[in-house]
Specification:
The chain is of the alpha+beta class. The chain has ten helices and ten strands. The strands form three sheets. The protein has a six-stranded mixed beta sheet, with helices on one face. The protein has a two-stranded antiparallel sheet with strand order 7-8. β5 and β6 form a beta hairpin.
Length: 355
């Protein structure tokens, strides 16, 4: 816990360390050097997050927009690593010539819109928190992250990763870490950390589906589609439909995500495998959403949101704890009908008992 109202702002990146580790070991310096620089920068940001835990984060700027309206500011870091950079677009201002700035602005808005219109949540803290983002961070920086206070996007190296504002679900994923920070505050280690990552994948995917007007059957259920450069043999960073199938590349290696507890990975790396084992609750959500059909942000998303924000999800929750609460949330909102049955069936399929 920190002194920032009891919340612990963790440092969360969209590209997990195990992918960057693979690239950093490559014999081609054009590929390895950006990955190494990214890993070094990520390590520094994690240290800063730990310091924030001790000294507290700075107070957020009060919103100037009315309740229920976004307050977005996009900054240009100018390929430096000093945040936030120069302000280039504020709330209500017209689009400029920089497509990266415009995508970041739109992605912040899409995330705000889903949480407000579907779940009645006013920004990520529920109280109209301003949404800040910095683009063009660092030189060939291969990541995007939420640092507990704002969004940050790299441009990618052009060889493995492209501009990190391209997939709207990446923006939604990272901002959902902020929602988790202000609600269940799931500890970023082991199964609770994998749940933290999974919540961001779930709502990142829902934000994309909501923006595109897709049903559960129409969605691709990919996280980060369009982020990988053409030379990479892969379609995204992760697949909720088929965990472990997102990429199989000579540089990145093979997607290690399991879809069931039979493949659960026990490791000390990546905070206990938070980006790997998140495939299990990810797949459970996919199964619920496709079983129920229609728009996934409605019934399936509502159940997951009820658990995240309901106050009963412990910060150290296990998969089984979360599964139990989703069953209870489905019953509380929809009674003993198709929703509860879909949730029970999904957790059974991924090997997590949900009594």
């Amino acid at each position: 816990m920190d002194t920032n109202g009891g919340f612990e702002p963790v440092y969360c990146t969209i590209v997990p360390p195990h992918i960057l580790d693979e690239v950093a070991r490559h014999e081609d310096s054009a590929l390895a050097t950006p990955a190494r620089r990214t890993l070094e920068r990520d390590a520094l940001e994690r240290t800063r997050r730990r310091l924030t835990t001790v000294i507290g984060a700075p107070a957020a700027t009060p919103p100037t927009a009315g309740a229920g309206a976004p307050h977005r500011t996009v900054y240009d870091a100018g390929h430096r690593q000093t945040l936030p950079g120069a302000k280039v677009r504020g709330e209500g201002e017209e689009p400029g010539e920089d497509a990266t700035v415009n995508r970041a602005y739109a992605g912040l808005g899409a995330t705000f819109e889903l949480f407000l219109r579907v779940y009645g949540r006013d920004s990520i803290d529920g109280k109209g928190l301003p949404l800040d983002a910095s683009v063009h961070f660092g030189e060939s920086y291969d990541n995007a992250f939420w640092n507990g206070e704002q969004m940050v996007f790299g441009d990618g190296d052009g060889e493995i990763f492209l501009d990190f504002t391209l997939p709207v679900d990446v923006i939604g994923h990272e901002l959902t870490h902020g929602v988790t920070q202000y609600t269940a505050n799931l500890a970023y280690f082991g199964q609770s950390g994998a749940l933290n990552e999974s919540m961001s994948d779930v709502f990142g995917s829902l934000i994309k589906q909501y923006t595109l007007g897709q049903t559960a059957s129409e969605a691709d259920w990919l996280i980060g589609a369009g982020l990988l450069a053409p030379r990479v043999t892969g379609k995204a960073l992760r697949s909720m439909k088929e965990p472990g199938s997102a990429y199989d590349d000579d540089v990145l290696g093979k997607d290690p995500q399991p879809g069931t507890m039979d493949g659960y990975v026990r490791t000390g790396r990546d905070n206990g495998g938070v980006h790997i084992n998140s495939g299990i609750p990810n797949h459970a959500f996919y199964l619920v959403a496709t079983e129920l059909g229609g728009h996934a942000w409605e019934r399936a998303g509502q159940i997951w949101y009820d658990v995240l924000t309901g106050g009963e999800l412990d910060s150290q929750a296990t998969f089984q704890d979360f599964a139990r609460l989703t069953v209870a949330a489905a019953r509380a909102r929809y009674h003993e009908g198709a929703e509860q049955e879909a949730v029970l069936k999904a957790w059974e399929q991924v090997g997590v008992p949900a009594p």
